[in-house]
Structures are given as C-alpha cells and as structure tokens.
Specification:
The chain is α+β, with helices and mostly antiparallel strands. It is about 25% helix and about 35% strand. It has seven helices and 14 strands.
Length: about 270
C-alpha cells in the first residue's frame, strides 16, 4: 500500500481533519483553509476515504476516524470509581464469650438486637447481610460473627466520582455508627477499587472488549458498554491499604490538580535542597 508522504497535499488534508475531530468539512472549506486547489482536495478526499483514513459524514462532508491518539481532543471525562470493597472490624463484640473465650457460634443478645434494629438479615453461614441504596448505588454490607464487616459498593451503571465516594462514606458512618469505626479511616481497609473513564465519542472498531492482565491482582479492560456510556477504559486493583491513604491517592488520581508541586529551592544550604 502506498505510503502518504509527509509533505503531500493528502497528508496535509488528513492532518487538518484529524486536528479538528470530530467535525466534518467539505472540499470547499478545506480548499479555503489549506490553499490547496479544490480539484486536488476532491482527489485527496476520495483517496483517503478509499484507504479508510476518513469517512463521509454526510453528502460532501468528510471527517477523520477517531482513534485512541485523538481522545484528548474529543473529550476529557471524569475519572470514576467502580467495584469498591472496604473491610474493618466491628466496634462491639458480636460473638458470645465465656471468660474471654468464644463459647459457641452464637451472637450476643445486644448484637442481635442492634442488627435487627438495622434490618440486617441472618444467614445460615453465621453472617448478617443488608443491602442499602445511596444516590442510586447499591451497597452490600456483610457482618461476620467474629467481628468483621465487608462493604461492597456497586456503581457499574451509576459511576462514582471522588466527591460521591466521600458522601457515601459519610452516609455509612452514620448508618453503621454503632457497629463500625468508619470515622477513623486509618483502621478501615480498602481491599479493591476500579478507576475508569467513559468516552462517549469513541467506538471500538470490530471488537467488543480487550482485557489486559498485568499482574496477579491488577487488570485493565477496554470495552464498549452502551450508547449512553460509550467506550469504557477501566483499571482494577486488588490491594490492602488503609482508607486514609487510599483517599489521598484517589484524590490525586481522579483530579491530578490536587497534587501540589513545590519547586526546588535555589539555595544549596536550604534543608529542602536536593
């Protein structure tokens, strides 16, 4: 296949259309902008369309195909959070003890009263479960007999941005006030989280999904979700870090402007130098 020369009229027209994605232009407009003879413009457009470098958006109008290299020109969607899993220990003792030793696989009367008051439902595996909804997000809370709480926040169809996550945590602090020490974020563990961006103007050509496994507990996926969401780029990590550190990291990750940069002092005697 013939390579488009860097100084050719065809290359100039392709560069013009790519720089102006997703807009479409007709031959007359391109002729005026690039000062290329209109007949040459028409020939070049036909050549680029035949090579599938551009497409006909409407009668007489052409636009460049969108690819990953042009995402920054298309849109800058927010970084959202998905599949959040939290874990912590309960404030109160749940299991019956005799002289400090677990006596049986039974909950204390106080624990049962509190769990019933919060509408938790017992299961056959000595766990209590409750599903709550907050701003359209499903939150599954599991209480374990030995004093552990698992919190899973699902947000596939209603992505969470960083301020949303803070509001969810505030809600959970109140709801689980007598059970979990969520106000002390250094004792709460973030076990799993996914970060994603949804590009509505990008469509995958010929494939539905690409999944990449970098490490055992880290994986990434690019897939076309639906007409409303578009193409989703997501990165998931399974780790264990306290919620306080996790929030600092997620704040920078979802909004890099939060990362403060302090220039290196000019004075070599300054303790911060080097």
């Amino acid at each position: 296949m013939r390579i488009i020369q860097s100084n050719s009229q065809t290359k100039r027209i392709l560069d013009f259309l790519r720089k102006n994605v997703p807009h479409s232009y007709n031959a007359k407009t391109i002729h005026r902008c690039l000062k290329i003879p209109i007949n040459s413009v028409k020939v070049c457009l036909h050549r680029l369309e035949k090579k599938r470098k551009i497409f006909r958006d409407s009668k007489g109008f052409y636009a460049a195909y969108t690819d990953i290299s042009l995402l920054d020109q298309l849109e800058n969607p927010p970084t959202t959070l998905h599949g959040i899993m939290l874990e912590c220990k309960t404030i109160m003792q749940l299991q019956k003890h005799i002289d400090g030793i677990p006596s049986c696989k039974e909950y204390t009367e106080d624990a049962i009263k509190l769990l019933n008051a919060l509408d938790f439902t017992g299961s056959t595996n000595y766990r209590y479960n409750r599903v709550v909804w907050f701003e359209g997000r499903r939150i599954t809370i599991t209480i374990h007999l030995k004093g552990k709480i698992d919190i899973h926040i699902t947000s596939t169809n209603n992505p969470i941005i960083y301020p949303d996550f803070l509001r969810i945590l505030s809600y959970l602090e109140g709801f689980l006030e007598k059970l979990a020490p969520l106000q002390n974020r250094k004792v709460v563990q973030l076990l799993q989280v996914g970060v994603a961006k949804d590009y509505r103007q990008l469509r995958l050509d010929g494939i539905k999904s690409v999944t990449l496994h970098s490490f055992t507990n880290v994986w990434s996926r690019i897939y076309y979700k639906d007409e409303k969401t578009g193409t989703r780029f997501e990165h998931h990590i399974t780790a264990k870090m306290n919620l306080d550190d996790a929030l600092k990291s997620l704040s920078i990750l979802t909004n890099p402007i939060n990362l403060r940069y302090e220039s290196k002092p000019n004075d070599p005697e300054d303790p911060a130098y080097g």
